[in-house]
Request: fold
Amino acid sequence: MAAAVCAVWGVEAGLSEYSLRSKAGFAYVHHAAGEPFVPRGDHANELLVGSNPDEARADCQWLRADFDAFVFGQACQAGVICFEEAAIESLQRADSHGCGGFKAAWRVAGDGDNQRFVIDADFMVDATGAGILSRTLDIPHDLSGIRTCSRTLYSHFEGVRPWRDICTTPAYSTTDHPFPIDDATLHHVFDGGWMWVIRFDNGITSAGLCLEPDTFPLDESIGAADEWNALMARFPSIREQFAAARPVLPFARTGRLQRNVARAAGKSWAMLPTTAGFIDAFFSTGNAHTLLGVIRLADILTQTNPGPDRDRRLADYDRLIRREIETIDRLVHGCYRSFKDMNVLSAYSMLYFLAATYSEERLRSGASAMDTGFLLADDDSFQKIVREFHARMGDGWPVAQGCDIEKTSLLRMLKDQAAAYNVAGLCDEGKRNMYPYSVA
Ligand SMILES: Cc1cc2nc3c(=O)[nH]c(=O)nc-3n(C[C@H](O)[C@H](O)[C@H](O)COP(=O)(O)OP(=O)(O)OC[C@H]3O[C@@H](n4cnc5c(N)ncnc54)[C@H](O)[C@@H]3O)c2cc1C
Reply:
């Protein structure tokens, strides 16, 4: 066999100056179209949630090309046969092609490093994000159960002003923010969508919009840059933050982001989580989910031989990914339903923070393993709570009522029902939407 393990490096990858910044947490600020953001002393239109116990165990904001380069470098150092600038031209499965003249389960052929490669392998992992395996195996995408519907428009910029300069007024300061707001992933939220603003330490800021097509239909006759400018004009304070910003990459614009294959693993093959499905970037779940998939597959492939035991574990992997995608969908979709009203968003989003802090603390303490579900996807009690609260987020409730009583009752209900998972003092009205990372 030519190679037991190989990695191909897609055309999007590029090396740039190493850039990484610790991420203090998640910050959300609410905007109404046509109105400037006016900070409030009670923080009712902001939510800040810390995500790090300390600097040494901090989440990071990675410039994507650097993150990819780092991971790819690790693979090369570990002895993986690597091809850069690779393009796969064909993928064949032996048992579905009458052996096709090769003895292994798979044959993959393509170009990389300016040379042609042909590799036979007993196991195939699809990490393309694009679904080369699903096309080869004719596995359909199934979006019937996916509720989130969003598209995206984004670029990288120079000259983005720090949000603290915009959100500070003579009557209001940021002194009770639990961390500098610009050290967090900043989310501007508004009815029908949201925008991320992520500052790296090299002067570059990643910024992009995720938009519900019902409210912001894609109009191909308008260029991506023009659409960006029109959206900036709609939200005066965001426009102010980006007044001197200059894109350093062409704008990228997509159709619907959501993908979900009907099956993520089988005999002699598996897809990484993001290849199997993707919902939305609202809680920045993508890379963590993908890395969990890498760890689980590495465990399956090193701990089992081909046969019934491996097949059973691959079936478990498939089921778990499906539940995880469903969980992310409920968490994110409920937030989209609440974007009209920050009170509701600051209560509903607690479901994500409960799941993230509880499961991360259990992983850190060794109380759970990597094959437990991402965001408590395999915890039936927690999932019951997610389903119940998501069901409340149907159109009209509680958004239409949009009052503090609803937010308060939502938060109190969640605090009561999810008490067993609340290791970080979440769902606390007394904190007025300002949550430092504090694990009891
Ligand atoms: C708008 C948006 C914002 C996001 N924001 C975040 C965030 O803030 N935090 C986070 O954690 N995640 C985020 N994600 C998710 C994150 O991007 C994905 O989880 C991550 O990219 C998955 O990594 P991957 O390597 O599995 O797939 P990909 O990043 O899709 O990489 C696949 C690679 O395979 C290559 N490839 C594809 N086909 C071929 C072929 N035929 N031959 C050779 N190479 C091929 C591609 O060129 C690419 O380099 C975001 C996603 C989107 C869409």
